[in-house]
Design a protein that fits this description.
6 helices
C-alpha cells in the first residue's frame, strides 16, 4: 500500500508552509506499509520554540485554508519543543532542533520510502547543521573578548 493522493497533497502543502516559515531539514516518509493509522509523516525542525510555533501555525492555517483539512489532534503546544499535528492521513512533526537530534525520527523511519517534496522544502536540508555552525562561530567570537 502507498500513500494516497490526498495524503501526498497534504504533505506537499504542509512542507511548503513549513519551508515558507524557514523550517530546517524538511523530510517526508510514506509509512503506509508499516503503520495502519496514517499514510505519511512530515518532519521539520527549527532552532527555537517561537519558530516551532510559527511553523506549526502556518502549516495548520494553510492546510485548513487551501485543502479544508483540520487536525484531529494537536499535541506539544505548551512547550513548543515537539508539536505534533495529526490529520489522520498524515502526521506533521515540528521539533526544536535539539529534540530532532535527540529523538532522531529519521532513524526510525529510514526503511520507509521518502516522499518527493516541493523544491523549497528540499532546499532546507542541512540548514539545522549550518545554523548550529553559524551559532557556534558567533558564540566563539562573542566569548573571545571575555577572557581579557
Amino acid at each position: 500500500m502507498t500513500a494516497t493522493d490526498r495524503s501526498i497533497e497534504l504533505i506537499n502543502t504542509a512542507a511548503q508552509a513549513a519551508a515558507d516559515k524557514l523550517a530546517h531539514d524538511i523530510i517526508a516518509y510514506d509509512v503506509s506499509d508499516v503503520l495502519s493509522i496514517t499514510d505519511a509523516f512530515l518532519l521539520a525542525s527549527a532552532p527555537n520554540d517561537r519558530q516551532v510555533k510559527s511553523i506549526v501555525d502556518e502549516v495548520e492555517e494553510r492546510l485548513n485554508k487551501e485543502l479544508g483539512a483540520k487536525p484531529v489532534r494537536r499535541e506539544g503546544d505548551r512547550e513548543a519543543r515537539w508539536v505534533l499535528l495529526d490529520y489522520v492521513d498524515i502526521v506533521v512533526h515540528v521539533q526544536h532542533s535539539e529534540e530532532r537530534v535527540f529523538y532522531a525520527l529519521e532513524r526510525l523511519w529510514k526503511d520507509c520510502p521518502e516522499l518527493e517534496l516541493p523544491a523549497d522544502a528540499k532546499e532546507t536540508r542541512g540548514k539545522a547543521e549550518e545554523h548550529a555552525r553559524q551559532q557556534s562561530a558567533e558564540e566563539a567570537t562573542a566569548t573571545d573578548g571575555d577572557w581579557r
